[in-house]
Design brief:
The structure holds two protein chains of two kinds.
Chain A lengths: L1 H31 L6 H17 L5 H24 L7 H23 L15 E3 L2 E3 L1 H23 L1 H11 L1 H6 L4 H23 L9 H16 L4 H21 L5 H15 L13
Antiparallel strand pairs in A: 1-2
Chain B lengths: L1 E10 L2 E11 L4 E6 L5 H9 L4 E8 L2 E2 L5 H6 L2 E4 L11 H8 L6 H14 L1 H5 L10 H13 L5 E5 L7 H16 L3 E6 L2 H7 L2 E6 L2 E7 H6 L1 H7 L3
Parallel strand pairs in B: 3-8, 3-9, 6-7, 7-8
Antiparallel strand pairs in B: 1-2, 1-4, 4-5, 9-10
Classes of the chains: A mainly alpha, B alpha/beta.
Magnesium ion (MG) binds next to helix 1 of chain B.
């Protein structure tokens, strides 16, 4: 029982960042109808961004995290403005190919800039784990989970409580009518892509100090993000949140009880099952994009 | 108030409007009738800026508006209640009405208009927190009209307000359109149901394959032999 609880806690911590990745991807797909194959690269960018701020600019750890997220937001916005806006109205396959190109270009740029060597990110948290009854958690991991939860809540409030969020939901539900109401669809697209990329960068910057940083780290992250989106249902915000947490827990349980080599396989086995049994996602009846 | 001059517009290679000219004067209720695919919806879309025109002009109160964005056209005072209602299905009734006022910033005016919409449509006031997609067809039509009124338009474009509604609900809808007019809102209404439209309009235009085929006082059009044969089933 104790080890089970420990696995669940570890899974939740991992799952919080999966949820961040999934929410970003699902918003971009739901609102813009773009399958963002470069999503994992914004995750990598977040991790390298933090590394860059710490090693080159010698900033405070927390400032580095914020800086890395800002980098993701800016580059995401630029990517939409320069590459996707001219393609508005083109088929989903066209934008998909463009995003695959961005994926390859960004990954090779990272390889060029940092070489293939894995880097680690220093953090100011003590190594000694906190013991809470039967479970123990490293302070860094607690911080990662807390931040992920705050970001998810923030995203939820943005979408459900603000004017911008209302415009995003309207665009998702009926683009042409949203335009009739005076919503600037171009602006919504730029903000959505910037926001989704910022969430991916946040996930990367949070997991960077836990794992190591290397140029192709985004590939696996992108696969996880796609898994989360499939689990939660395309364009489903609440589904992506729950899907992320579920995937994290399933992976930890799989790694703990089957074999650590099967960690990633467990996640994909679940995806295959969901696609076979409930292809519209586990939470198909929940409200979409909010 | 509104004048279209030789307006042309196309969807890719399909030409939907082949030189449409019409006029709506302040305070009028003008109807645009015609068969399926004649280009009625496309005409309204061109006016509200969601279909780009390729040639011709649209003048609103003397100013060209055919190169403006939908938002700019809306803030000048033209609201478009689209064909098929198009409420935001996962949003509540209240959020839908708020979306109608999205381009406005005068909070007091918005609250006033919200109250006025509830006075017109008591049912909406009772269903504020219900998802719009779960309303009945008639209720959705009221919501769509209410949402358009939330922009406080001076010209209201209505596309087939009677579509798919039961006769009693159509009567309610028509009564509301008359009330809206009495408040000084000018109306351009597209209708399949020509008899119904001509009965309540001041003037009418008959559209055929992307062009205006006939125009005149509503009373004269009802008596017109061609209109009778083609659109009134007589
Ligand atoms: N989105 C579109 N893409 C391509 N062609 C379109 C589109 N919308 C309309 N058309 C075409 O433009 C022409 C005019 O259509 P429009 O919808 O304006 O007709 P309508 O008079 O409103 O018809 P209805 O009474 O059926 O609503 C038709 O030939 C139609 O097929
Ligand atoms: Mg039509």
């Amino acid at each position: 029982m104790e080890t089970f609880l420990q696995h669940v806690v570890n899974g939740l911590i991992l799952g919080g960042t999966y949820a961040l990745l999934g929410i970003g991807l699902t918003l971009i797909f739901g609102i813009m109808n773009v399958v963002n194959f470069a999503h994992g690269e914004f995750y990598t960018l977040g991790a390298y961004g933090a590394f860059l701020f710490l090693s080159l600019l010698d900033t405070n750890f927390f400032v580095a995290l914020l800086g890395a997220i800002a980098l993701g937001i800016l580059l995401g916005g630029a990517c939409e403005r320069l590459l996707l806006r001219p393609l508005l109205g083109e088929s989903i396959e066209t934008t998909m190919l463009v995003m695959i190109a961005v994926w390859i270009a960004m990954q090779n740029a990272e390889l060029l800039a940092w070489g293939g060597v894995a880097q680690s990110i220093d953090h100011p948290f003590p190594q000694a784990p906190l013991i809470l009854g039967p479970i123990s958690v490293a302070p860094l991991r607690l911080f990662v989970f807390g931040t992920a939860v705050l970001l998810i809540l923030g995203a939820h409030l943005l979408i459900h409580r603000t004017r911008l969020g209302k415009a995003m939901r309207a665009t998702f539900q009926d683009r042409e009518t949203a335009a009739l109401m005076g919503v600037d669809i171009h602006g919504i697209h730029t903000l959505t892509f910037a926001f989704g990329s910022g969430l991916a960068a946040a996930a990367g910057t949070l997991l960077g100090p836990i794992f190591v940083v290397y140029p192709s780290m985004g590939d696996l992250a992108a696969l996880k993000a796609f898994s989360v989106v499939i689990l939660g249902g395309l364009g489903n915000f609440a589904g992506a949140t729950l899907g992320g947490l579920l995937l994290g827990i399933a992976e930890e349980l799989g790694a703990g009880y089957v074999s650590s080599g099967y960690r990633d396989a467990v996640g994909f086995a679940i995806i295959i099952l969901v696609l076979l049994l409930r292809p519209s996602g586990l939470f198909a009846r929940a409200e979409r994009v909010g | 108030m509104l004048r279209l001059e030789g307006l042309r517009a196309a969807y890719g290679r399909i030409e939907a409007l082949k030189g449409v000219s019409l006029e709506v004067r302040a305070g009028e209720l003008v109807t645009l009738i015609g068969a399926n695919g004649a280009g009625k919806t496309s005409t309204l879309k061109a006016i509200s800026g969601t279909l780009r025109s390729s040639d011709g002009r649209i003048l609103f109160e003397g100013n060209e508006i055919h190169r403006l964005t939908p938002r700019e056209i809306l803030t000048r005072g033209i609201a478009h209640c689209p064909e098929g209602r198009r409420v935001f299905p996962y949003m509540t009734v209240r959020e839908n009405l708020e979306m109608g006022a999205y381009a406005r910033a005068d909070i007091h005016g918005i609250r006033e208009d919200l109250e006025r919409v509830f006075a017109h449509f008591p049912i909406l006031g009772e269903r504020l927190r219900q998802a719009a997609g779960t309303l009945s067809g008639g209720e959705q039509q009221m919501l769509a009209i209410g949402r358009a009124l939330m922009a406080r338009p001076r010209l209201l474009l209505l596309d087939e307000p009677s579509l798919g509604l039961a006769p009693t609900v159509i009567e309610t809808t028509l009564r509301i359109i008359r009330e809206v007019r009495q408040r000084g809102v000018t109306v351009l209404m597209v209708e399949q149901n020509a008899y119904l439209a001509l009965r309540m309009a001041d003037r009418g235009y008959v559209m055929e394959t992307g062009q205006i085929a006939l125009e005149g006082k509503a009373g004269d059009l009802i008596e017109n032999e061609h209109v009778k044969r083609a659109y009134l089933g007589g």
